[in-house]
## 1
Amino acid sequence: MSDNLTAIEKPPVAPKPDAGTKHPSGDKRFKILEVHMKKLQFKQDALIEVLHKAQELFGYLEDDVLLFVAHHLKLPPSRVYGVATFYHFFTLKPQGQHTCVVCMGTACYVKGADKVVEAVQNQLKIKAGETTPDNKVSLLTARCIGACGIAPAVVYDGTVTPRQTPESTVEHINNWVKS
Amino acid sequence: MILNDLISVKEKELAAQKKIVLRCCMAAGCMSSDSKGVKEQLEKAVAEAGLQNEVEVRGVGCMKLCCEGPLVAVDPKNELYIKVTAENAPSIVSTLKGGKASAEQTDPNAAFFKKQLSIVLANSGIVNPERIESYIAADGYLALHEVLNEMSPKDVVETMTKSGLRGRGGAGFPTGLKWGTVAKSPGAKKYVICNADEGDPGAFMDRSVLESDPHSVLEGMAIAAYAVGADQGYLYVRAEYPLAIARLQLAIKQAKQMSLLGAGIFESPFNFNVEIRIGAGAFVCGEETALMMSVEGKRGTPRPRPPFPAESGLFGCPTLLNNVETFANVPAIYRNGAEWFAGIGTEKSKGTKVFALAGKIKNTGLIEVPMGTPLRTIVEEMGGGAPDGGKIKAVQTGGPSGGCIPSQHLDTPVDYESLGKLGSIMGSGGMIVMDEGTRMVDVARFFMEFCMDESCGKCIPCRAGTVQMHNILDKILKRKATARDLAKLEELCDMVRNTSLCGLGQTAPNPTMSTLRFFRNEYEELLQPDTFGAGATHSQPATK
């Protein structure tokens, strides 16, 4: 982590006057993130909005990204790290190619969402919150996605799908694994 | 924008209205069953039949009967089609020319719909949530105009007090009193916050209101801001509701373009801006002080009160914080008068309440009923009872902060006091029905696990207590606990309830306590005999 710190605090080797602070990795996503922060006027209270954008761009929040955000919002890295780890929505680990989010809200639970999770866990041999070793599928659970009228609901790669069973979920995941 | 402009928008919208309207549900529930495809096919079929001048296909918000979605309603024929697919959608259009529909229909006069009284959901399923003109045609923003031009902030607070509206977030604090306190607090800068962090698992009322009628919430916030003297508002929405966020962003943009938000609203000196703040998945952020920390971009941990947010809230300024449903009630109260609102409901609980009916019940979806409606009416008449001939065992209200109401108490009227007496709470409106197959100890453990995970960790009773209670519940379920463990569980429930810092910890034991109160036998059946003999305070534990 200390390596990253010094890397960011050092000014870029040959700064162009209008290029702003370019990230040493040359990754363009940092530039997009910086523009987003500028739009929010580098306001410190917009930290959560910035982290949402960062996760959208990078898929997860690695140390480098958190330090970049801290530096630009003039916040201590501890504060940024603290916020990123407090909220469930932010992940500090990379996710698989596909994500399967099983809603575990009360309505889904009483209609058998626990059995859906169990079936997927047995199929993929991973636990909820983990990613398969080949980086293909991440299994997650949600507290409640507000789709209680169509319980049990599963979100496949961002698409809410109603009335799932252990069989239909495993079938959906098998299609991913095969492809 | 002045009153005449508003009226001309309304008249233009009404004049443009076509004879026949096909309303297609475009809320999150139906959209997950491809209502978007249904709408596209309806539009295509209308164009092919050459009916564009007579028929409008309108994307609307929630039409309440979520379990049967996607729903399509035909006006003015008063027909309601259920489980419509992209394939059979064109057949609905063919009925307009004497054809026969292959999609299933349901009775729009069934008890599920007829027993409802809509104030908050009056526009839901009727107006197009993505067009401000549609809301204005339904008398939208008229209340805001009247408030700004004909009432002083003091009058506005007084009307709210007279209406008897109580906070719909769950605690039921009188809204008028809250507004009055913020209005009286000294300070040049004040804030209004709308709590749309609907964290209770099993509740989706606020999501539906935001997706179906976002302008009513914005109008309610603007009226509240005028009453308390605020010029900045925040809407704190869960990240799990992307559609609600998108519709709110659009609604704010449209309202700004029409100068119904921003500077000098209705050419008065009143300014009001609204910003959206997106949550990041923390249940504790539904608690008001934690929510404000999160709006400030910090970890969402609560702090002791006083000082109350009304005196020192967001950024240390006086802050008014109400729930989505509370704000959605506001425009109707000023359009129809406080007396009208106070005439609905019971003596202490006025108006209506929206419930999200889900779980082991035939009809799942949204219902809005007058306060004081018996639970039995909701669950048996409107909900249609348990599916497949099952028997209802209990109704859970209030989510992880609430309790389970057993079937013998189904005649209880739903209002703040009656539910409180049964050890449950009104809560934000989640209502989960459980049938005979549901094990109550398992339910208690489910909610305790939720509270354990969601505890922010700031105060010890909640952080450590929920873990201990969860462990005991787990032990009971594994048939490894004795009567002594049960006694310890009850002691812990009492301790955590009385010593936690915020509402999360104070109410975390509720599901356990209420299931212990009504279903104690289910716990005792799982207990093992106490091998040490001493300390067994309860009746001989069953040996199985």
## 2
Amino acid sequence: MQSPIVGHHQIIEQLHHAIASNRVAGAYLFAGGANVGKETVALHFAKSVNCLTSNEGACGTCLSCRKTDNGNHPDVQVIRPSGAWTRINQIRELQRRIVYRPLEGVRKVYILTEAERMNLEAANCLLKTLEEPPAESVLILLTANLDALLPTIRSRCQIINFQPLPVPELAAHLIQQFELEESHALSIATLSGGAVGKALTLLQENKAHFENEIPEIITTGDRLAAFRIAEKLSQNPEVLDHLVSWYRDLLLLHQGAPIDLLTHVYHIESLRRLTSRYSRLQLQSAIQTIFETKKLLTRNVNATLALEVMVLKLLVNDT
Amino acid sequence: MSYEVLAQKWRPQSFEDVVGQTHVITTLKNQILSNRIGHAYLFWGPRGTGKTTVARILAKAVNCPNRHQETNFSQELTAEPCNQCQFCLEISQGRSFDVREMDAASNRGIDPIRELRENTRLAPAACHYKIYIIDEAHMLTQEAFNALLKTLEEPPPHVIFILATTEHHKIPKTIVSRCQDFDFRYMEQDLIVSRLSVICDAEGIHVPPEGLSLISRQSEGCLRDAENLLERLISSAGKTLDLEQIRQILGLGSNHLMGELSRAILQCNLPESIQVLGNLAKQGADLTQCLHQLIADFRALRLLAISPKLEDLIQSSKSELQLMKESADLASPERLSRIIKILMRTNSEIKQHGYAQVHFESALIDACSIQGGVSLTSALKRLAEIENRIDRGDVPNGKSLSESPPADLGSTVDRSALTPRSPASTSILGPNTDSKSVASQVLAQMTESASVNHTEREQAPVDVDMDQNRETDTRFRSVPSNVQNLLPDSDELAKIWEKLLAKLKDTKKMLLHGYLRNATLLPDEDGEFASSNGGLALKIACSPAYTELIEDAEKALLSDILTDLLGPPVQIQFVASSATANMNAKPSPRKTQETTPMMLRYEAERDPQLTPALDLFEAKILKIEPK
């Protein structure tokens, strides 16, 4: 099954260009948010490098491309963290094997996912290999957090930044490929924050059936409703991202920003009515509160309690 | 041969080629020329500044047999390796027997070091020196370091150790002290630019000078970073690059838009600035990069706003500088500082939470809401001015009120009529603001003589406690006329009492606080204890047991506190609390006391009839049974 890569045209073009002009570097670092498409692009790159028929890009039909697709190409290897960390043994194993010539392809391609989860020893161990990788090999490190990597690693790689797709573009793609309704596609696109992988997951899990309406939390002032809302939120915490986008819209409207930047253009009238209930500082601190809570939720907290506190903080005081 | 990236291809092969680090290079060259080569070196410094490179060159230089230069008449010895002899080539290609480059991060245990020690004993195969380059030395384990110590201290004469690391602090002191320490520093941007332009010329790459300085700024003084950026530019856009392309590939957002953004912020034009941000995002610019750029721009503006002479510190072209100067006139350094602070905070928030656009927008909203910007000094100046005016009595204040004789109450009425506060709001007495004022107002009118003392008291604290005085001023003004007929009823006194208790607690007079906890403050309605000096008399109704325990000094303290709270001097008298007072006019603690076993025992032990008996029988009281 061949699915085209959505977005990242510039990056793919850049990589194709490198292959065509024989300027493939030995070490790449793909940086960008989670599920934004780094691994997809990295695999595509691996296919393109080794493709038997096409000189620019991957044909997707030759033996090499199909092997890569199925994950059994001997020269393309993906190294993932074992447990919480990528350990030094995995890197040593890589170093042992990388010195050999490729078996079938043109280059050996090693893809290290979640490079920020290499532990200190593993990361340092990789340094010399990254600096002068053996000929006919490419190392591709993927990371969602560039700052968490050692500066010495960053400095040795060609860093390629992956930006999330603009929401309208992603929505358009979803509509085209999956024949979704426009509002549904938009809400999924917003919720995924422009990360294609996340959008697809949401679509598969069919979780994205959030009412595409203004969240109750914004409209109500009822403190009793808070607990109900919090419980709902605790069932799928991804909605917090969604919530941020609503508050952002309110804030932008409140400040008289141009309308075309809003996410929820369909609700502009009701949002406009709501803005009068908030002050600028309230809205800004609301956004801040949501972010803080999101951070808390990744730690070891009582999720329901944290969400309840958040909802109570967010509720408007009508008095 | 497979392709090498620029950083690899252009790795310097001789001392001459090394960019910057002159302090290291000069020393090493002199050592080589005077044949005073050390046996152990430690190279440390940030990434991409040339540690490994210099180590390799040093290895070549000490082993190269052809280190001389043809001059006009004779051959002169130099420190540079020839890069042509067999040794140089072998070392450059990493296949020399006698130069071993060890990746300490991969071989960090004690075993590789033991093996290395074994090998040091053998004489070099072909070269003059045997050289061990231990790269990423900070990753060696403690044991490995210690195993190295003795060898490092006195290696065989044919061995040179070169340790290279980015983390000097992880190298044990015992290792450091055995090595010659060379620190590699970040390179100046000019040096990076000139190196890049050399590379560009040789590779046939066309990049405008502004583009090169942009790259060097992005690289933060590390040459390898700069070369890798250049590599990335070439591999994505070919060999001819213009500035906009560079900005786009580096995710910087176009110069034009960034300029618009900072202008919009300076003009406090929020919709415009958010629109520009939206455009930047649409262009695919990296918003965190844009934020960094914006911070740098505002820093430049701030420098210019402080003094136009500081323009030397800003790296940008003449035309940009001119534009900046115009913008700098729009804002004060204080305002620019605050904007920078907001942007910096946003930067860390984005790092923490992600969602660059939402945070960036929030920052813009904050930044645009800063209008003229008042500096702290000018705010303080204004505050001092206001204080002075109050001192001079320009504003209607408590002093003028208290100076007016009580007969002239009309003036108070007038004044209160002028106050913006409505009587309704003041008649509801807040627990901690108005009760005091009402009470003092009322008390001031209650006794005519009080006003005299009031004046004296009011004048005293003026210098001492400006704040409190001013507070009182506003309260006096805010008292509406209809409160004047009120007597200080028990409610207000109760509030005052609570304050007194709180104050006792604050000053840690816990014992006194305990005594008075259940007591009440009563007005002296029947004039029983009419004060002799014209002050205000109040009664404290309190359990009689405690009245005897309270010392005179503490009583004085209480009256002082009450005086502070009320205004006029206060005299206090203790009376028995109403419950007991009804039973006994002159209450004696013995009879009114709730009898506890302890008290009974206390009484019994002092009973005049019982004590002789106890003495006589040498007895003890074991148990007391009340009738």
